[in-house]
Amino acid sequence: MFKPISRVAGASSTVRFTPRHISSLRSYATISNASSNITVHKITPPSGSSFDFGAELRGADLENISQDDFAVIRRALYENQVILFKKQQELSPFAQFKLTQLFDSSAGSYGHGKTLDKKKSILHPDLKTIPHQPQVQVIGNGPVSSFEGLQDITLKHPHHKTFHASPVSKSDDRNNTRFYRWHIDAALYDLHPPQVTSLMAVRTPRTETQTLRYDDGSGDEMKVSRGSTAFVSSYKMYDLLSEADKDFVRTTKVQYAPHPYIWMSAAKSRSDGLGLVSEGKELPLSELPPVDESKVKILPMAWKNPVTGKLALQVHPSAVQKLHLKDGTVVEDLQAVRQIVHRLQRPGIAPELVWAVDWEEGDLALFNNRGTLHSVTGSFLPDEVRVFRQCNLAASEGPLGPEDEITG
To answer: What is the phi/psi pair of residue 333, to 5°?
Structure first.
């Protein structure tokens, strides 16, 4: 049983805020303010990969972030989409929350709101809330006797066999895996999608690698460390499109299902984790919590980066329900909607474009939740203990669309 030293409520009151492997790293000048000691080192993809995002930040004291430090961190995030801080084992949940909140000072509640309280929600089994820091969730695998005020909990790593229509066979499961579900962290009903997510590796069992299979007829596969988190750039996903498809993406809006994580609870995923198969298993309105039409989210298909101005093809493929086209047509046939979205997004998850982060204990990642998709991978035995802390906050405003101006 894993029994880390517990922090109790109030133990983080001394935090002071003023306003395994990576194949190789290359530094570049980032210091927008010479008074910050933080340096940024871009990730160089391993042989056979060509993803163009990701960076490690060094020299940061995340318990004491100055305005100059945050200027460097913010720019690094929106230029690199996923940034990694090493050896952050002592960072408190409060400090993790405050770091996440720096990207949206008006945000204060967890990004999924009360969705976790709904037992029909597909998210319900996966997360435990830290009692003294409710914006921070605990995820992982295995029995944990005591952690951050939580007692005798059992964490369960999401396994694709519970979500995919045709999972890997039991005999192949230990050595092979899938992308569980490509997604963004967002309630997609009532609440605005979080700006960023922070993810801290508290305990990570070191095990062998697995072969990640797409099993979609393409023959695509890649090697990943067990339990790695896979990221892709939604900006690259947009850049890969034809000019006609780019115009479609810039001028189309996406309508998400009400209470999407309950709505999809009986449905199953494609084998590549990029959206659902259409079998008519989505729950009808009569089986959902009450729906307020004013809270249904209709968002741009293309989201603008608030620093670089680049456009991202940003769609949660499992939660999408309808498409609103520029001529006023609404595509309501769910199978057609899913086919359109999958055709647009699939090139962007090619193996060479995926960064599968091989976690080490103490790693803290921040990722641009409005410019990346990510997915869990892997499987663990019941006694393989893995503990992570996750924080994202429902944003104070919606994403920038293609025609919106960057301010601030």
So the answer is: -70, 110
The CATH number of whichever domain residue 404 belongs to comes to 3.60.130.10
Q: Give the containing element (helix H, strand E) for 220.
A: none
22 and 363 Cβ atoms separated by less than 8 Å = no
Q: Are 325 and 331 in contact (CB under 8 A)?
A: yes
| Radius of gyration from C-alpha coordinates of the chain | 20
Range of 73's domain?
Answer: 1-408
Describe the crossing of helices 334-345 and 243-251 by its angle, rounded to 10 degrees: 130
Q: Pull the structure tokens for residue 347.
A: 């090139």
Output the CA torsion 358→194→120→378 (10° steps). -10
Residue 383 phi, psi dihedral angles, 5° rounding: -95, 5
Angle in degrees, CA 113, 332, 349, rounded to 5: 65
Structurally, the chain folds into a number of domains equal to 1
- pLDDT tens string, the chain, 408 residues long: the values are 433 323 323 333 333 333 333 333 444 434 445 689 999 999 999 999 999 999 999 999 999 999 999 999 999 999 999 999 999 999 999 999 999 999 999 999 999 887 544 567 887 667 899 999 999 999 999 999 999 999 999 999 999 999 999 999 999 999 999 999 999 999 999 999 999 999 999 999 887 899 999 999 999 999 999 999 999 999 999 999 999 999 999 999 999 999 999 999 999 999 999 999 999 999 999 999 999 999 999 999 999 999 999 999 999 999 999 999 999 999 999 999 999 999 999 999 999 999 999 999 999 999 999 999 999 999 999 999 999 999 999 999 999 999 999 986
Rounded Cα distance, 74 and 40, in Å: 11
Q: What is the 8-class DSSP label of residue 126?
A: G
CA angle 27, 389, 80 (to 5 degrees): 25
